[in-house]
Amino acid sequence: MRTSPATRAVEAITEAAAPISLAELNERSELLARFDRSYLVPMDAFLAIAERLTGPRCPGGPFHALAIGGRRAFRYRSVYYDTPGLRSFHDHRQGRRLRFKIRERVYQDSGERQFEIKLKGRRGSTVKLRRPLTGTGTALDAPYRTFLADTLRRAYGIGAPGELGPSLTTDYSRSTLVADGERLTCDTELICADPETGRTVRCVPGLVLVETKTAGRLGRADRLLHAHGMRPAVFTKYCGALAALRPDLPGIRWRRAAGEVFGATRAASTRVAL
């Protein structure tokens, strides 16, 4: 399968960068509690920024590229779960303090599966908790529902939703650049699908979806992105894709960024296999 221009740009950067192992990444920059900022970066701007970050003259030392088994790009697949009324989507749309996302993440190159809960912490930080999924288990099985209920009770003092089902799937390629205390994830070839309607949307081929992850204040990557005219976008894969796939939803806060990510084309109708 041919890769997109943005994917080839990311590959050029990560192949030229010094490698870092997963164990080293977790030691230097695991950041399960962090501040996330999203940027929609055209390929040419990404190349200029990433070459500076990974170059030997980068102030503070160069970023390294995550490498596992000789690979520096990895395929991710996520299944998000929500209530029939899309409680998680609407809680994020309304900016509710006690909001959360639930998903099953598959690392397709290794087959590893994780059940993940993303919470909003103090001052808008993101806190991610997870448990391995084994065998044919899914996020709807009893042990994971118990983990969800316990997590929401401890974190927010609220009960877990009674009814959940798959609400969105995402597939994409990810490469990661790492420095002490911060990470930069670089996603391309994003495809999002609505299990209810079978409709899909695809990221435009010349765009890199960049997320910076830091313990608090702006990191070196954020400052360099800002210097190149990039500002954080009002976009998440879950909410932005649902806003594009279901135009009847009141998701106006994400529509501008979703239009930039997915282009002006209408969502295609293809049946999704979960």
Distance between the termini: 22 Å
Number of helices: 8
Query: What class would the helix/strand composition place it in?
Result: alpha+beta
State the CATH class: Mainly Beta
Specify the biggest β-sheet. 8 strands, antiparallel, barrel
CATH topology: Hypothetical Protein Pfu-838710-001
The spatial strand order of the largest sheet comes to: 2-7-6-5-4-8-9-11
> What is the CA-based Rg, rounded?
18 Å
Listing every helix as H and every strand as E from the N terminus to the C terminus, the arrangement reads: HEHEHEEHEEEHEEEEHHHE
Architecture (CATH level 2) name: Beta Barrel
The number of domains: 1
Rough shape? globular
Kindly state the mean pLDDT as a whole number?
A: 91
**Strand-residue fraction?**
25-35%
Question: What keywords describe this structure?
Answer:
274 residues; Hypothetical Protein Pfu-838710-001; 8-stranded antiparallel β-barrel; 30% helix
Overall description:
By secondary structure, this protein is of the alpha+beta class. Helix content is 30%, strand content 32%. Strands 2-7-6-5-4-8-9-11 form an eight-stranded antiparallel β-barrel, surrounded by eight helices.
